[in-house]
Write a structure and sequence with these properties.
The protein is of the alpha+beta class. The chain is built from eleven helices and twelve strands. A six-stranded mixed sheet has the order 3-4-2-1-12-11, with helices on one face. A six-stranded mixed sheet has the order 5-6-7-8-10-9, with no helix packed on it. α9 packs antiparallel against α11.
Length: about 350
């Protein structure tokens, strides 16, 4: 009888604590999120993988997601087409495997290009870094998606240019040089499967060029790397080898940012085995940055609150135009979660000086 009771209790607890992929969340309307995810030769298990990854992308609801190891570009393109409110891009190259997905309602892409593409750079960069220049809520960002050379023995052999650690070290040198020369004052986020640990001793740390310039570069995920192995991105080894690096222009925002490994396997009934067999051997690493530069009422995003913003709100109310997430956030000046004619009225009152702040301020 006791065994039956125990079984019932265990069954009840498993149901009570069961979680589903749809319950995963990370993105918000008031933050910029950048995620890196090696999806291990996507699609690892065909349509099953595509369905899982689609479901996870929708649930995470992030602004920018950088992928590595996209093996079948037609499958990736089909997945993008089937997603709701997302668009994407992939490098159509046999050796690249780099791609990204973003939310066009919140992110505007300016330029996409690869760097270090010539044969002379194939040793440090077997996959050329993919640069994306974009805008989010009037902020410019440079995101650089990478997949560094894998493997090695943990030590840099300075006399062997084909040593795996030496190749990753040289990639760090070149990547830093490019950022220093081309984006000295920009919000730069370097992310990807960098295939090495940032906690290594300085003598064998392939990222030492960045650590040597800590006034300008910082690994956002250092706390994860220094923490419990249960939170690392590559549990099979285990190690933490997927990283997000930011430049000093984002240091202030980093103080209140959220950085974590998304443990999707904990939302699957079969746990890690189900995740590894159907999705990837890497977990995503995610960064969430919140900005305090929101101007309520500035619906068109030009930095000023004007009568035209009230006009846009009215056009949205009568369904002449649709708002993206940023516009919904800035237009809701009374803070009730609904865009109404009253919001337009408040904006006009602010413009003519009847009120000097909005209820939501």
């Amino acid at each position: 009888m006791r065994s039956v009771v125990v079984l019932v209790v265990l069954l009840f607890c498993s149901i009570l604590w069961a979680r589903d992929i749809d319950e995963i969340s990370f993105g918000t309307a008031v933050s910029f999120e950048a995620v890196t995810w090696n999806t291990e030769w996507f699609p690892l298990n065909g349509e099953t993988t595509i369905n899982y990854v689609s479901q996870i992308v929708e649930a995470l609801d992030v602004d920018f997601l950088a992928f590595q190891e996209i093996d079948n570009f037609s499958s990736f393109a089909q997945m993008i087409e089937d997603l709701t409110n997302f668009d994407g891009y992939y490098v159509d190259s046999e050796y690249s495997g780099l791609a990204f997905i973003y939310k066009p309602n919140t992110v505007t892409i300016s330029e996409i290009y690869e760097i270090y593409t010539t044969q002379s750079y194939w040793r440090p960069f077997p996959r050329s870094p993919l640069v994306v220049e974009l805008q989010f809520m009037n902020e410019n960002f440079i995101l650089i998606n990478n997949h560094f050379k894998c493997c090695g023995d943990g030590y840099i052999d300075w006399g062997d240019n084909w040593d795996e650690e030496k190749r990753r070290y040289d990639a760090s040198v070149l990547l830093k040089e490019y950022i220093d020369e081309n984006f000295p004052n920009e919000n730069v986020i370097v992310l990807g499967d960098l295939n090495d640990e940032i906690t290594d001793a300085s003598s064998d740390n392939v990222f030492q060029p960045f650590f040597d310039d800590d006034a300008n570069y910082r690994f956002a995920d250092m706390e994860v790397a220094e923490g419990s192995s249960a939170d690392w991105s590559y549990p099979t080894w285990p190690s933490h080898i997927d990283h997000i690096l930011v430049t000093n222009e984002l240091f202030d925002e980093l103080e209140n940012a959220t950085i974590e490994t998304i443990k999707i396997d904990e939302f699957m009934s079969g746990g890690w085995n189900q995740y590894e067999n159907n999705i990837s051997d890497h977990r995503p690493v995610a960064l969430k940055i919140e900005f305090n530069n929101t101007i309520y009422g500035d619906v068109d995003g030009n930095g000023e609150v004007q009568a035209y913003d009230a006009s846009l709100v009215l056009q949205n109310v009568i369904e002449l135009i649709d708002f993206n997430e940023n516009q919904i956030f800035t237009a809701d000046v009374d803070g009730n979660g609904i865009i109404q004619a009253y919001d337009a009225s408040l904006i006009l009152q602010y413009v003519v000086g009847i009120i000097d702040e909005f209820p939501i301020d």
